[in-house]
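Notes from the 1:1 (GR / supervisor)

We went over the backlog. Supervisor wanted to see one worked example end to end before approving the batch request, so GR pasted a single chain during the call. The sequence is below; no edits were made to it. Supervisor asked that the structure be written out right there so they could see what the output format looks like.
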Amino acid sequence: MINLYSTQIESLSVHKIGNKNKSESIFLSESPYALNDEITALLKEYFFKPFREKEENYFQFVNEVDVEFNPLYKIVTEIFEQPSSVHEKSKQIASLLYEQSQHPHIKSGELYVTFLDNVTIDNEKVDAIGIFKSELKHDFLQFDEKESTIDLLIQQGVNLNKLDKGCLIFNHKKEEGYKILSVDSNRYDTKYWLEHFLGVDAFADENFYTKKYMKFCQDFAKDVVLPAEDKKEEVMFMNRAVNHFAKNDTFEESAFLNDVIDNPDLIPEFKHYKEEKAPKYHIEDLTSFPIANNAVTAARKKMKNVINLDTNVQIKMDFINPESAEKFVEKGWDEEKQMYYYLVYFNKEQKS
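Structure output shown during the call:
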């Protein structure tokens, strides 16, 4: 978890990055920007808002040989070791981005490199480096009051409500390639930002493994439990799976199978499905790991717990108390109507 509430922007360098393939130039500022309170407040909201609103999916610097050969990792490490060098190093970052700006779809824009103080991550206060890019320009009106009229002037500028691209590199977990958060509002050139410029991959921690394993369970429920049983059992399986994650601090696969799978015939199906699909979820040989509670909460919000019937009726199950569905919902077949039915028991209707 991160907390940017008390974070301060200690320095800001602004450069202009063109598209090298289109023979557009790069403009490097000779000195850092002189910040004042007003613009600092605006920039903090512009830079940090996407990270407060976005689910925390961490990345780390990687390289096929060794992370030390990742050029941005090297520059970032030098900045953390000597923060006063951040502006000169920001020019190297800008040049690195310019070299990767060669695809015709990549738009020119302004690059902001910041050194950040007092960032909290995993309950630890650290420094961080922010790298942000604004690309899309928007028309806006300016007004010029004259003696008897008001002139309307059309100008172009950056929308401070939407950051195009950005990343926060935390001075945390250096040996593993640092922990990094990234946002990208323009999906057409994601590889350019994540792979070619940053050179990152997913940070494989408890948050990553919890999310991946729960997504794997969700797909198992859809692909195996639903065809073998029915929609109710699919929902109930995910009910039990989510609750197992919620009530345990550590995941143990054998305990999970005993707790979650009611039908013993599905256990070998689960193991076969994992052997076949594990690489897709990065959970090969993963049988135990610490559970990240925030990842469980986020996954629970996304999971559907509704049975939609072709008679325009919905039955909503309860993820918190799955035993209610087992006790009070029964499925059957009506010979006379030649239709399935759900029988729901209750004492009284609840007021909405």
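Supervisor's comment: The chain has two domains: 2-203, 207-344.
Batch request approved.
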